[in-house]
């Protein structure tokens, strides 16, 4: 499968994940440990971010550099410091950036659908690095790669997705990918006001994925192979009622979990995982972030070389 | 002509434009399409911007990269994030930057005259990338190159400059360049409160350029080879009276225009050009932006190699 | 001495300064004048700044580039534009950045102790580029190198440190370094409300360094080899009482100073040095800033090659 743009998790098929992405990401890890390669020499990236980011922007730029590509332009707050501040539309911005001979544009936009619009106006490949409450497909790819790498399989796993499921784009995108595997069991654990979107639940039904909606993490913790914890998206406005609690992964939850289970988090975390969990071997979230580098190196290599 | 600094459009003579800049910009377009050259290998640029920019900063950094030069430092909002935030004068900042061995400093400043001051304190070449309501000479160079490229000539053309002529620095700088050509006819189309500066009108009289001041774009549209539309500079405060309208280039204006005419705009645009104009072959503004890359590559090559 | 992290001025011994840093900084000056070297080819830096900076960030990035290293990621306002804006702890951020294969992380943090915390969680070398009101050790190293270079010696000099001695981190760090030399005499000249920290005065006593606390710069100006002027740190809140004046180095002070003395300032300066002092050969502050480049090149070479 030749990839032109990366817009949404749905565009990726299981076969491509298993035959192309996972082996190449593994190879990229070895290349990174050896200090990089020059496979993307002369290739040029534009990083265009309308919202704050460390992990995503840094890992894309580091990935490009490790493969000897160049970042020809990087803006970390396009909303404030680029022509967007003067009211330019995304369409116009993308057309202009196309004129500067990039080989790829990595775009984080602040509204759902941004990457799709950008791709319509771009002859240069667009990578969606998050579009508001929409999708964050490269995060989903690194998430599913992490599950495969840590557990050795994806078919048959049970996973609890925990927290702000209404607005967390990472859990949306990951659900789409898991929908292609077999015997998956998903527990959506959230306050009632932040339940998983209907659109995704309908997709999972169609894919014959078993899921249930829960409100009590303790009830679920002992049952799953993966706890995928997420952050309350305070910057998108509080939808949480005062009476509703939130979930914290701490020693108590760890004690309930299976020995071979793992804890994931897209990071950054605030208080929803206690720091004393970090040293437990099941805490996979820092390894997960590191995998982001390898997956992004793999994607760039596939798209540009 | 050896160029030390690029400060204002006035410093460029017709002969240099025709014999040096235009042919080199054309050559640079071919080099860009071939993937670049290494003519500026080891050369180092500092991008120092006190005001938001996408096009200008990105095209300079992309130009440098395409010629294998390096951007050793880039700040997109020096007013807020550099020592300027602590109150340092431009003079001191420039002296300091000189100590870091750049080969060129690209400077956008937020007040008129910034580039001239910078040049006085810099042994390293300064390129004015816009100084408040002052000048934006590289924009003027790409504008006049675009006219030459699209129409095949500059002598004898008629042009309507439209919009905020009082504060739009691109129309000021372009007027200075056009003043060196023959049989030019300029229509300054603006609300009464945003008329072209006297200083520029006096210069044009001295150069024997015929111009008239108009308020009705429809009256002028059928007469000209170029409509140069500009943006209301809202970020510089509104000087427009409520009773005054603004100008929009739309299908109605297109229908009035000559078949071989062209529409320019320094971009970003807001509502002053309807999106449905974009697909008309006379809409030259995206090609104009692209020419910015070639002109800046040419300037960097001339100054640094 | 092999350096792992650079956290505080105290970690450097006189012998290392004289035998390693000073000769290498001198060599780096020659290399910079020749256009650089490729000693750090393939080496990768992350610049992570939580507070505004021009000089420090630019000189580190320029230093890296001159030695053919690469800056793989640079953020100029991490507090606002990185995951720190979402509340991520410094510990987590540093762990994540470690996963992107940098060879060094240059960190400016907005609270005292940031670099020390970062070093605890980083297997990659951390360079403290300023931590709030804490330390700024590479500034201290360039300061002491400048004294050595300008005066030809450090033992036996007398120096007036002037201004906001309570909060100015450069004077704290420089005091620690001077404490290792012999026959130093320090005059701390400050308003009563901004006197030098007790902690540093106790250290100097232990080191047998003679110092006195003064309020009148004119009284001291004729006695010293170095006036080290500093800036009022307005961004850290005013601690100055209305009745207290401040100090200005102007023609009057110059007239009092010895012929072979020198004026230093970490820059940026506001009004505390009159611009007409700049042309006096004793005004060493722009040379001091330039030395920052050579010292940082030397440090990067020592740590990374």
Describe this structure in words.
The structure is a homotrimer of 305-residue chains. The first copy, chain A, is an alpha/beta fold and 305 residues long. Chain A folds into two domains: 9-135 and 290-304, Aspartate/ornithine carbamoyltransferase (Rossmann fold, 3-Layer(aba) Sandwich); 137-285, Rossmann fold (3-Layer(aba) Sandwich), CATH 3.40.50.1370. The first copy, chain A, is built from eleven helices and nine strands. In chain A, the strands form two sheets. Chain A has a five-stranded parallel beta sheet. In chain A, strands 2-1-3-4 form a four-stranded parallel beta sheet, sandwiched between helices. In chain A, β5, α7 (169-178) and β6 (185-189) form a beta-alpha-beta unit. In chain A, α1 packs across α11 (285-304) and α6 crosses α7. The two termini of chain A are 14 Å apart. In chain A, 56% of the residues are buried. The mean pLDDT of chain A is 92. The B-C interface holds B 42, 44, 46, 70, 72-78, 80-88, 91-93, 95-97, 99-102 and C 32, 35-36, 52-55, 57-59, 61-62, 65-66, 74, 76-77, 231, 234-235, 267-270, 275, 286, 289-290, 292-293.
Quick description:
Chain A folds into two domains: 142 residues, Rossmann fold (3-Layer(aba) Sandwich), CATH 3.40.50.1370; 149 residues, Aspartate/ornithine carbamoyltransferase (Rossmann fold). Chain A is 38% helix and 15% strand. Chain A contains eleven helices and nine strands.
Going by helix content, strand content and strand pairing, the class of chain A is alpha/beta
Number of strands of chain A: 9
Question: What is the strand content of chain A?
Answer: 15-25%
Q: Order of SSEs of chain A, N→C?
A: HEHEHHEHEHEHEHEHEHEH
Which protein chains make the most extensive interface, counting residues with beta carbons within 8 Å of the other chain's beta carbons?
A: B-C, 30 and 30 residues
Q: Which stretches of chain A are low in confidence, meaning pLDDT under 50 for 5 or more residues running?
A: none
């Amino acid at each position: 499968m030749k990839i032109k743009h990366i817009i949404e998790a749905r565009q990726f098929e299981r076969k491509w994940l298993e035959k192309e992405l996972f082996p190449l990401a593994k190879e990229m890890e070895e290349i990174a440990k050896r200090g990089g390669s020059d496979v993307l020499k002369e290739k040029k990236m534009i990083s265009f971010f309308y919202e704050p980011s460390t992990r995503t922007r840094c890992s894309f730029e580091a990935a490009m550099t490790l493969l000897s590509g160049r970042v020809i332009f990087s803006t970390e707050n396009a909303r404030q410091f680029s022509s967007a501040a003067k009211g330019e539309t995304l369409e116009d911005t993308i057309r202009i950036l196309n004129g500067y001979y990039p080989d790829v544009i990595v775009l984080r936009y602040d509204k759902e659908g941004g990457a799709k619009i950008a791709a319509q106006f771009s002859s240069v490949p667009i990578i969606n690095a998050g579009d508001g409450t929409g999708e964050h497909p490269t995060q989903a790819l690194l998430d599913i790669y992490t599950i495969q790498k840590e557990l050795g399989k994806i078919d048959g796993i049970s996973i609890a997705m925990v927290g702000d499921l209404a607005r967390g784009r990472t859990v949306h995108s990951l659900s789409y990918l898991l929908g292609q595997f077999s015997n998956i069991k998903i527990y959506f654990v959230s306050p009632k006001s932040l339940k998983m979107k209907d659109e995704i639940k309908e997709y999972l039904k169609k894919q014959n994925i078993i899921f249930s909606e829960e409100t009590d993490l303790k009830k679920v913790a002992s049952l799953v192979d993966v706890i995928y914890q997420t952050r309350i998206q305070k910057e998108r406005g509080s939808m949480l009622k005062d009476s509703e609690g939130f979930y914290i992964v701490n020693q108590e939850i760890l004690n309930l979990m299976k020995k071979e289970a793992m804890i994931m988090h897209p990071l950054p975390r605030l208080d929803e995982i206690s720091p004393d969990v970090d040293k437990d071997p099941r805490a996979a979230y820092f390894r997960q972030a590191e995998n982001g580098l390898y997956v992004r190196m793999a994607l760039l290599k596939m798209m540009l070389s």
